[in-house]
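Recap for those who missed Tuesday's class. We walked through two folding examples back to back. For each one, the amino acid string is listed first and its predicted structure tokens come directly after. Nothing is annotated here on purpose, so try labeling regions yourself before you check the end of the notes.
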Amino acid sequence: MKLLHWCTLVPQGPSGLAAIRFVKLVRIKCIRVFPKGAKPFKQCPDIFGETEPDSFLLDVFFNAQLVQLSSESKEKQRATNALVPTTIAYAGGQVDFTVDLGTEYATRLMIVKGQFDALSLAIYGEVVSESIIPPLSGGEIASSVPKSIPSVEARTLSASIDPANSTDPTFLARNLLSLLEDTPPLSLVSKLMFCLKPDSDDWDEPDFPYLFVDFDRDIFQSSLKTEEDDETMNSGEDQINFDIEATLDAMSKPVSDTVAEGTLTKFAQVVADNIDSKPNQALHIAKLFKLAASQRPSLALALCQAIEFHTVFDARSLDEDILLHLLDASANADIARYLHTDYFLDMLAEFQSPSIGVAQTKTAKQAAERLVTRLQAWEVFEDALSNTQTNFAAAIAFLRDIGAGEQSLGIWLASMTKHIDLITKLAENPIVPNSSGMYPKLFVRNGVSGSMSVGGAISHDEFIAFVRAFIGVASVLAVWAWSDSLGNDVCRERTLGVLRLWQSTDGYREIVNYLLLLRQFTLRLKWITSNDTPRKSGIFGEQILSDLLDEPDAALNDDLVQTILSLKQPLSHISENDRLSMRKIALVVEDGLPAAIEELTLTNTHPLSHRRLRTLRVSIALVERELAEDPRKGDWNVLQAIWDEQSTALAPRLTELLGETARDLNGYFRITSPFPAQHQAKTQPQISTAASLPQVLTQLFQLAEDLLVLLLHLTTVPDASLSPNFPPLSFSLSAYTLRSLVLSVADIFACTDIADTMYTQGTPTCISAQSTRQACLEFVRRASNTGPGGVIVEPEGGKSGGEIVMSELLKHGVARSGRDPAYHLLQMFALIDYVLPELNSGTGAGTDLVHEHWVLQVLPNVSNETQEFFRQLDVESKVYLLRRLVRLDSQNLVGAAEWLFTEEMKLFERCTKTLLSSIETSNDQRDTNIQTVVLLYQIGLHVRLLEHMLQTGSDMLAWCLEILRTVQEASSSLTTSMVDLSIARVASSHLDAVVKTLLIHFDDGDNGFKSTLIVLFLRAVRLGEKSDSLWSKVVTLLKTLPLESIDLAVLRLDVGHALAAIASDSLSPEISSVILSLMTWLTAQAAEKKLSTLCGIKADTLVTLYDTLAASLPENQLSALDRLRTTLIVDGDETFVPANMNIPDTLQLSLQELRDILSPTSLKPITPTTPTRTSVPDVLGLVISPPAALLRSPAATGLTKTYLNNEFRDLRQAAVTRQNTSRLPSMHVDVGITGQLT
């Protein structure tokens, strides 16, 4: 990117237009505006910016031209007059505005329109002719050196704006507050903005904000009692005329830090004394506790110590207002400890029970429930500040509850910054350096309730960082509210800039967006964005508002909806399209459930746009809110809305939406995208640009997760024990619908892993993909279960959910997906592994029934699909799946793993027979033929499977040996395969390992199998395999075999090769004795004298072997060795040994080889050719084979005849000789199994 143009524009004429024309086609990347007096270039100090006024709106138009990408195109591009508009909001200072016309468009003309006097700007970009890189030739591509892409590392926030990693989280807020004149303390500001809410008249007071409560004037109104009380008159004591309402009015002002502790204690005692004489003041006392909770800690503590709670409150005196006041007051640590007693908790339980006899509102009961939870959570939260092994999820939920109300937030913030014990506990935790740039994202949406919970495991350091960030964000929000109330644009602009930066940072974003939903902040965003003149604070406000609406939970906020609906142009950051999109969402929320149902049932165009995705997510959130707010009637209300608005069923429609979402995600991650490119016709939907693709993917993953969560809520079998009186309604799924859901979930699951790999960890796309992946796993788990927690599948008595899920996953794993087949297969295998129940997943009758159901009803019904899927897996995955099935069917009720292994052995046998047949047919044992190489690789896969199963120390060794002993088909197939491999002379280190294990552990094979193992062992020794420990086993086994079961010619040859291989080795006395025993056995076979004649070893090599044995044998065996020297001889003839066929460990095929294998062999018809005559006489030429006509001739008296004169012609005139015995040549061609002509 370089400087294209610098100028100062001055509008011409009444229209206020100015234009820049470029001499070449350019692609503009950035427009930089310089304020008046600024020096744009260091090399040119005499150039100054002249922009006036300080703020204005600009309409910018670019004459867009389509760039000719291909120089080979014969059609010349037409010049277009299309003007691409955009708006620039200049609010002062030096500002960069990014321009993105894409790579396919460029411009020669830029037009500017606006209310400005002068505009100094620099335009940066590139000239199109210089940016087009010609394609590389084949030679250039081959000689080019690949360049490594530098890794992108996350940048951490500066320490000055990172309260999560600061010992004083309020440091940034106090610095922002110092931008104001006559800066009040931060504690006073947060108290006024969140809790006390000063009257409008107080803002006009000259001493504001230092308007403190005067206890003597406002509360302690002392006067002598009237003369009617003589005793009091005589005593001379003062009597305080206490007025609770006046006291509450006075306590709505802050308490000064200069007030003596004795005054606070006296005030608490006065309140307690007057409560005794004036009953039924529960509402006033609850409000007093709330007002005191945000004041000095000693005031709330004094009230708690002075007031006896049971004298004020009981279950019948409680109401909604009292409970809400106490809920806010309990955000104070001291008041929470005071209320957290068995008496008060029992009172709240009695209040919620129907036995009290008083009809309570739903909101009152919810307030009582929240109060109980908050009192209990305070204890957990305090413990979490110092305990590294506590319940951090409950502590995070407590903070979320605190942030739901302004009063609670302000009171809790005062406790965390004023209570010495809490400050000390938090300060004792050291600062952990954050070098990764990752911040703890602990607010995670939790299902249908729309609440927030903790995602994943939380460390103590992450929790402490989150608490500090929460304090820092709340403090900065208080400063923003204060500066906005005062109208100080400098402090407000700086504070909003910090909030905007936090909103783009994971961890901070969740806290900021959640706290911004408080009513006063949504109203302040509304006020900031209603200014016609561009301001930086207004731009920040629009950016914050736009990002805030990305979350469906935020869009459900009524105050935020009204703020969105109030937006009107001109706006500085939000374009008209974005405003309409936001307005659409706000209108859906305002119309409620009927509008949500209508949006969910609309027909969509694909790919789904970002706007449509957000609308769908908000519609789902509205349905979820209806279900959560009224567990008893929410389902019915949703059904009623569907029946009123549409005639479709909810669960099938949500299934269709999930399928559409899956197809969109597949389109973005397939090898060839089905979506049209941007330069295609405008009538077609356009694919997202590279800049917006991550946002679209994020919304797609989140939409998929929302749909899955809602479907689970609607279709999960309820647990009647949790709500026996009013169990929630549950929808059933047809088998067809469940199949569609499983296929969609499978595709989404595969896409989540791709996104997790493609995008940087911690980015929104990656995080949403990871969250959606867990939702997919949870869905298939529940869909596979029966009973509570599972999914209802119709018709009753048909296929179970587990059978449907397994069948679809198995079939989908081997089906075409548009992705890498091997990758797709492994993703389906991960889902299947999660679906299969673990043997140790639980105990009890319920778990045993689940396992029995899977073993007896699910696995047998998907056996064919399982076999096809199993054959496509890699060796390690096959072993893992067999292990899972063996553990699941631990009692061997159906033997699914046994059947799969047996079928694998049968396939192994077919492969070896095919290999042997191809060798016999072609009479060629070379392993260079491509078909043979592929076949050998397939055989190698079976051998490696056996190697893994028979590995020493493996938990599958005993099971596999037992199958070979008890299952005749498996043993027979393995025997045949090993014999075929021996005949074909196949060699592999994996095969050697299998042979070793079988020789050691398997003694139950027939004699042919044992002899084959001996031969394979000897060949392994010839190839250099050191197996000294097995020589004794092999020789002993050989001596036990009858000679009829041994191929003696093969044995002589392989023994000779093996002895030649070890002739020069250093042998131990034990091995030497075994070798001597073998050689003695060979010479002792009187029935087969040929065994005493070795093949495959030379005479000098045998002499070397004798010398090696003599050097290691004990003296008592040397005489036997000497006898062998005379009895054991060597066959002097050269023995032809076919070359070994090596099993490849990897298989690499060129595209042409792959095409040849997959394409059918083209067969050309064979036409007969006319034989050519030769002048060379044939030895057999005198032998005549007469035609059949001659043999049938009446003139023929024998096999031969000598013709005289015209007898030949006369013979040809006979009727029988005129028969046409000729026929067309046969066009039939026989084709064998291997594709060869036969």
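Example two. Treat it independently of the first, because the proteins are unrelated.
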Amino acid sequence: MGDMTNSDFYTKNQRNDSNHDGGFGCSLMDLRSLMELRGTEAVVKIQEDYGGVEGLCQRLKTSPTEGLDGDATDLDKRKEVFGQNLIPPKKPKTFLQLVWEALQDVTLIILEIAALISLGLSFYQPPGESNEACGTLSAGAEDEGEAEAGWIEGAAILLSVVCVVLVTAFNDWSKEKQFRGLQSRIEQEQKFQVVRGGQVIQLPVSDIVTGDIAQVKYGDLLPADGVLIQGNDLKIDESSLTGESDHVRKSADKDPMLLSGTHVMEGSGRMLVTAVGVNSQTGIIFTLLGAGGEEEEKKEKKDCSHLSSHPIATIATDGAASANAPGNTSLVNGKMQDGNMENNQTKVKKQDGAAAMEMQPLKSAEGGETDDKEKKKANVSKKEKSVLQGKLTKLAVQIGKAGLVMSAITVIILVLYFAIDNFVLQKKPWLPECTPIYIQYFVKFFIIGVTVLVVAVPEGLPLAVTISLAYSVKKMMKDNNLVRHLDACETMGNATAICSDKTGTLTTNRMTAVQCYVGDVHYKEIPDPSSIPPKTLDILVNAISLNSAYTTKILPPDKEGGLPKQVGNKTECGLLGLVLDLKRDYQTIRNQIPEEKLYKVYTFNSVRKSMSTIIKLPDSSFRMYSKGASEIVLKKCTRILNEAGEPRVFRPRDRDEMVKKVIEPMACEGLRTICVAYRDFPADPEPNWEDENNILTELTAICVVGIEDPVRPEVPDAILKCQRAGITVRMVTGDNINTARAIAIKCGIIHPGEDFLCIDGKEFNRRIRNEKGEVEQERIDKVWPKLRVLARSSPTDKHTLVKGIIDSTLVDQRQVVAVTGDGTNDGPALKKADVGFAMGIAGTDVAKEASDIILTDDNFSSIVKAVMWGRNVYDSISKFLQFQLTVNVVAVIVAFTGACITQDSPLKAVQMLWVNLIMDTFASLALATEPPTEALLMRKPYGRNKPLISSTMTKNILGHGVYQLIIIFTLLFVGEQIFDIDSGRNAPLHSPPSEHYTIIFNTFVMMQLFNEINARKIHGERNVFDGIFRNPIFCSIVLATFVIQIVIVQFGGKPFSCSPLDLEKWMWCVFLGMGELVWGQVISTIPNSKLRFLRGAGQLSQKDEMPEEEMNEDQEEIDHAERELRRGQILWFRGLNRIQTQIEVVNTFKSGTSFQGALRRQSSTTSQNQDVTNVSSPSHVSLCNALSSPTSTAAPSGQC
């Protein structure tokens, strides 16, 4: 079903290949059916139908060694016949769809209904002139002009609703555009090594075509399907396609099929690309998943129950992270990340499931046990709500409830007052002909009530969060932080610990050999080649040149006088540099023995910690070259080359002496020590190469090289900033303990004389495991607080440490941990951490997939920038809250008391909407875009339990609220005497706007404007203008608001219930507004200690952080109730639902419910999903993708 509907070009391709195969020896369908085979079937099929891989290459007109010639017409033709390597994205939402979504807002719907009733009634003229009898309140001057003007209020409300909708839709639209831009940035980053015209080049993944020869190596994410031509010890993790956690061995003669979206876990090789884009295995699955479109959605509801066992779903996260195309959403984001919300809820949840399955393999790879309990846990979503979202959600609910109560009371009081006054005190009968007039009154009361609700609910919150995050993300690009998941940015501000890699992050990752021990002599600098025995020199040069990835090279510098360019593995580059220093050329040796002639390669992996290559010598005996961490390789050496170049016996005690005399001194200078060795094997009998333990022993050591990786110059300063900001930096490295300690001292992670721990992986495991070898949390708690350096650590150790710190209950605040990683094996730790940083340059695709932020320059100091931006986001939201809540409190109280005392709100519905617009939308723009300052790094992290609204902020909110209320009530009750004007109180229905109420409205807005300047500081600073010109957006918004306000007051007339004011009255309004600035100074003089009663609102207490599972059950109850209410038309309760919806919006940043819960809810709450889908904006989903990936062992949040 899905296949055919994918896209036009898909069907076009199908037609193409059925008619002709474009002059190639095989058609698209042949290749597709070939790629569906596995293992020996595939080998047989290739052999029989195509005459082996070579035959297949000939049919595809390519050469297994030279690749394609890269001719443009040929490439275009291949794209035409076999398709392009991208999956066509879904269309983004149109502006009209977004407008429609914005219109679904409950409050707006209530307002629209009220406005329409008001409009309808204003055109209805009651029969007969019996007005006198219908209640005293209407006895005003009802002349013709006024009666006609009755429609204006309804129309104005509708107009303001249109404004709000357009602004919201525009915001969503620009947000989506930004995310799509971000997405294409991430995509362009992904390149792949391809052989074209005999040269290895890096191509963007989307440019790969069928027939290309691609070089695959450790850590790659395969971008297309292909057949292996030649491989060394290649192991692939195919769990993203098959769900099988064991790594699959690939070899040209046993199982040559490589599939897109799978991860290379070990080894290297070359493959012939046979299927790209929608025709690759992953593409086909996506076609089934996403492009079925409408039919799919019908099925979706049914499928949901089977999803968890459905291998297809497994693809959703990174199973597909391949074909990236600049302008196109490609496999990376898959269909899911495409910002399409069509079935957002289901899809995001689908990803959760997918990701859950995704993580299983990593666990078992680490040797963890995958029992059912674990599997259950794996389904819990990746992280708890981010700190900020948790706090905002709570606050929004609190405010919403209060607003709801206030607005209900307002309406009840107004109706009762009117009824009692008319029918009880004046004993009037209810006359049928008066009914319309009474209804008009009731509608007016209702509108006032809704107005109170509108003002009470802070719609601006989700908006402010989004704007602030989107703005930060855009700016963080400039600081070399490519943010993949929006909320990571804010979480970073709360980070309390950073576990950093050493190589490449703290150091420059430019390895240079500076010392060596060869021929029984320890050279403190690289020796002259003449001083080394020629025999030794030959073996050494061969050992280094052949036993390293042929993709590793040293190229001439880009610019004159620069350092030579190191390409590939940096440690190997250091060794190749040694060969060049010894005045020899490694390339000539490689040319004599090209990569195909290497007999067998044991690639480097984290278990072996060494790499070996076997070659066949001319006399058909074998020689194996080995290199690796010195303490590991030396253990396997039984001989060593002496000063004459002859092997002599090398006993354990010689080894101990060497460690003391050579290796430790090197390590203490921060050098990484690599031992190079070799071993000869007889031709007959040929050894069993699979029996690694017997092959990798009895080596002969050639030399030990000390390689230096200098510390990046800016790192010590960055680490100092982190420590000042209350963040502990820990170094986790695979290097030996002495090297690690030396580097840590240079970086300033440890200071001599302090009480800290530097231990290696072995000791770490000994301390944290009990007799049975199980990790115990209380044992970890004894280790981590003092731990600063963890050396010789395995990826599992890293994961254990991160998990241990996160789950620890030692400190009252839960630790927020950031982790950096570059290798494939760092995946689990990156996923487990609160924020995972992957290296943009050195990082493998797998690490990038698991991360939240990619450091495009691999530099530690960029992490500090991320902390700064994260804290800035938090502060921006707080500024906005401080401003918004002041307005809310004042507006609600004014509307409420005004309505109760004078039967009419001093601030009319339309005015309220305008105030709401400046408060919400404009203020969130102005305050959320403040640039960060260094001062942010001078304080400790806020932590999870610190209230969102600090006591200083509460003081400011209440203080300014009091000032504004005093001014407004003074104006309301004695304003007519002060300004000598007619009183606007108790005006009849439809009376013209009074100057009195216009002054109140104008003063109110002026006070908000000046208070917006006060809100720029939340820590009680005195100078609120500090750095105001660094934020042009802020200045322009304040000015624009001021100008529009003048226009509204002078020319707004009846729709805005304003009458023009003269200059003197204007001056008074501005003067009263400026009083805010003076009053702000008065407030900041009052010490907080005097105000004990100001406990913070929006605090996250322990019981709020309950496990996701329980939350879902609560959610479910709410949903059933919600549907009951929906049946009765109880509109008031919808206000509450609206808050929930807003919470959901905030949550769409990060789908916070667990997978199973989602499936449970899916059935019961299709209705609510409609709501959520409409309100939340598509863009959130695009970044949700990996956020929703659960971790292998994510603890339910309750334990944190």
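Answers for example two:
The chain has a mean pLDDT of 74.
The two ends are 46 Å apart (CA to CA).
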